[in-house]
């Protein structure tokens, strides 16, 4: 018999340490010619460092990088694409400590192949591509030389490090996806300029690999987002574009021929016509949502209503077909194909992320590495349910979310009592959340607290039109949709409408603060490195997002009035509920002064609040000890504010006022 206990006070074996240390961060699975599988593995228990791993065919997983190496780039601050497998026993990577590129052969020590910059981490590298002859490496470089903003370039360098990198493309604000054709003749890349973000307007260019200065545009423009160009086995260029309102697959109808020939580039044909997204918001480098098998079949991650599944497109064309796998979440997708197999990292509502190799013909899968050796008991798994709910606009518009109800086989709530609810607002804000087993969510649901993960208007995975509903309305429609999700569940009788909390990180932290300051629906909130002052963010953030707010709010400083109107820091006296803030002191994206200013204003206005700041943490916490302290503090805070007694022994948090 299940024990009857108040919601929020259920005993759970899912401890904060299980959440922080129990899940490796797995990504960028890559198949090698010798049958080995490589991947990157983030380790919270080692300060969040990222190691390169390899499992030889028939063998056991082993770390390839030396102890202490941290495979991570700071290009765009968000990074990604920090390593590249060049051969069965050869890899290059960027080390976080100095941002230099290292060549590593199995059994040997890493060798730096880029020069040491005059200032620490002033030269940063990402998104590597080796020419077919194995001699030259192309990549993106970000130069921090003390100018008004960093300069982004595509550079080439000899793989042996015998000469410093040479600039292959420059003059645009941003570059990504340098890709060389299999015949070695052509270099393709994407680029874009302020104030666009890569999901707004990008361009696809091609250039002779031996003379990149003779570049020519192939696709893209102000209202078209190009993503993940890749050459196929016939030297045709395949890419994703949202020119029809959805990220679909396109390809040149023929190879590009000789770069020396004075002829037009080949036409482009559309390969898919899905009302679903086959692309992804390009927050980081190295993502790849499509890959070609040996028989010409294209395997692709398809996102419909924020649920991601693996599909295939036959070499002869036709409709996409579902490969029938249980996975619904591919993280930052990065497919790697060889012969008839494809490798990826993915999760499902019943399983945490794992590195998987799929034999497409047979449908057989092999798990190479799991996020944790400790599985979650089925009785503690909360199965997410997609919900759709009306928005406050009154025009029939809807928003979306996934609801995770309380779940613990050993407990049930008292008759007549409804559970508290935590509304989660995702970061980005141009991103989306997928339905998957998440220990952090289970930490709450196994204690009797519901969680709703909101894909507010502006989220990806619902087409370009839905994505652009946040244009000019950031801080308004995302906040309204978080409130609408909570009201929908409360009015449906699933949660207690008087015990609603909201939490989020970065842009999600901003929505949290907006909800608490400009509305009165929530009883408590938790902001992780959230934006409190949009005007300060516009003046004081990094290059990649320096003009992001032009589209989300309006041009700055011309619309400084809007920035002030949408900044919770200026309206703290309206704060309707207690809030706890968490901040990394080395955050270059949302600097600590935002949280500190918010705390000072709440203290001056007598608003109940708590604040935890962490040395060594940046934007997005990576250290296990930080994550443990945050979960304990947040649970303690909710218990005090929402009126339940956690079963855990928790270190108290000082709540001012």
Ordered list of secondary-structure elements with their pairings:
Elements lengths: L2 E2 L11 H6 L3 E7 L5 E7 L5 E7 L6 E2 L19 E5 L2 E5 L6 E5 L5 E2 L10 E8 L5 E8 L7 E8 L7 E4 L4 E7 L5 E7 L10 E6 L7 E5 L5 E6 L5 E5 L6 E5 L15 E3 L19 E3 L5 E7 L2 E7 L7 E2 L13 E3 L2 E8 L2 E9 L5 E6 L14 E6 L7 E7 L6 E2 L8 E5 L13 H7 L4 E6 L8 H4 L9 H15 L8 E6 L1 H12 L5 E5 L5 H7 L7 H5 L7 H6 L13 E6 L7 H13 L4 E6 L9 H19 L15
Brief summary:
With 657 residues, this protein is α+β, with helices and mostly antiparallel strands.
CATH architecture of the domain at 377-642: 3-Layer(aba) Sandwich
How would you describe the shape?
globular
Main structural class: alpha+beta
- CATH topology of the domain at 377-642: the name is Rossmann fold
Strand order of the largest sheet: 30-31-34-33-35-36-37-38
Helix percentage = 10-25%
Q: Average pLDDT, to the nearest integer?
A: 95
Number of helices: 10
């Amino acid at each position: 018999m299940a024990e009857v206990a108040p919601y929020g006070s259920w005993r759970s074996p899912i401890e904060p340490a299980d959440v922080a240390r129990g899940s490796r961060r797995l990504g960028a699975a890559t198949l090698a010619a010798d049958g080995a599988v490589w991947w990157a593995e983030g380790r919270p228990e080692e300060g969040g460092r990222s190691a390169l791993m390899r499992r030889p065919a028939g063998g056991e997983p082993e770390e390839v990088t030396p102890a202490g190496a941290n495979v991570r780039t700071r290009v765009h601050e968000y990074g990604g694409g920090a390593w590249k497998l060049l051969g069965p026993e050869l890899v290059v990577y960027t080390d976080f400590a100095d941002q230099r590129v290292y060549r590593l052969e199995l059994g040997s020590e890493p060798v730096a192949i880029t020069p040491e910059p005059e200032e620490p981490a002033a030269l940063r590298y990402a998104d590597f591509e080796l020419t077919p002859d194995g001699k030259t490496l192309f990549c993106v470089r970000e130069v921090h030389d003390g100018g008004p903003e960093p300069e982004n370039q595509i550079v080439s360098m000899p793989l042996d490090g015998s000469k410093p990198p040479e600039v292959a493309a420059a003059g645009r604000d941003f570059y990504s996806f340098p890709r060389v054709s299999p015949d070695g003749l052509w270099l393709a890349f994407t680029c874009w300029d302020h104030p666009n973000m890569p999901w707004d307007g990008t361009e696809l260019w091609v250039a002779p690999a031996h003379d990149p200065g003779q570049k020519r545009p192939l696709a893209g423009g102000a209202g078209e987002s190009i993503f993940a160009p890749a050459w196929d086995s016939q030297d045709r260029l395949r890419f994703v574009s949202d020119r029809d309102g959805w990220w679909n697959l396109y390809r040149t109808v023929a190879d590009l021929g000789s770069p020396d020939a004075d002829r037009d580039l080949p036409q482009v044909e559309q390969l898919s016509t899905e009302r679903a997204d086959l692309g992804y918001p390009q927050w980081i480098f190295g993502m790849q949502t499509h890959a070609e098998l040996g028989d010409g079949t294209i395997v692709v991650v398809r996102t419909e209503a924020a649920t991601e599944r693996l599909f295939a497109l036959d070499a002869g064309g036709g409709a996409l077909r579902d490969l029938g796998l249980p996975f619904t979440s591919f993280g930052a997708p990065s497919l790697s194909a060889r012969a008839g197999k494809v490798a990826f990292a993915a999760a499902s509502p019943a399983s945490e992320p794992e590195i998987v190799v799929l034999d497409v013909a047979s449908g057989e899968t092999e798990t190479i590495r799991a996020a944790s050796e400790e599985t979650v008991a089925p009785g503690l798994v909360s199965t997410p349910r997609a919900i759709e709910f009306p928005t406050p606009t009154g025009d029939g518009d809807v928003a979306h979310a996934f609801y995770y109800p309380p779940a613990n086989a050993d407990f049930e709530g008292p008759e007549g009592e409804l559970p508290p609810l935590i509304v989660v607002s995702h970061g980005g804000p141009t991103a989306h959340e997928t339905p998957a087993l998440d220990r952090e969510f289970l930490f709450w649901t196994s204690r009797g607290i519901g969680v709703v993960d909101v894909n507010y208007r502006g989220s990806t995975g619902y087409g370009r039109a839905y994505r652009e509903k946040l244009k000019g309305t950031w801080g308004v429609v995302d906040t309204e949709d978080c409130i609408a999700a909570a009201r929908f569940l409360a009015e449906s009788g699933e949660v207690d409408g008087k015990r609603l909390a909201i939490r989020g990180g970065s842009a999600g932290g901003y929505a949290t603060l907006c909800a608490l300051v400009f509305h009165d629906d929530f009883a408590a909130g938790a902001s992780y490195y959230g934006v409190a002052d949009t005007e300060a963010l516009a003046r004081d953030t990094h290059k990649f997002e320096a003009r992001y707010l032009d589209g989300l709010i309006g041009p700055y400083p011309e619309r400084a009035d809007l920035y002030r109107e949408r900044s919770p820091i200026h309206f703290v006296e309206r704060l309707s509920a207690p809030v706890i803030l968490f901040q990394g002191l080395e955050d270059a994206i949302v600097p600590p002064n935002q949280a500190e200013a918010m705390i000072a204003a709440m203290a001056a206005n007598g608003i109940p609040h708590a604040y935890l700041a962490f040395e060594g943490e940046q934007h997005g916490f990576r250290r296990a000890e930080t994550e443990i302290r945050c979960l304990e503090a947040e649970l303690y805070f909710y218990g005090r504010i929402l009126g339940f007694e956690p079963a855990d022994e928790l270190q108290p948090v000082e709540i001012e006022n």
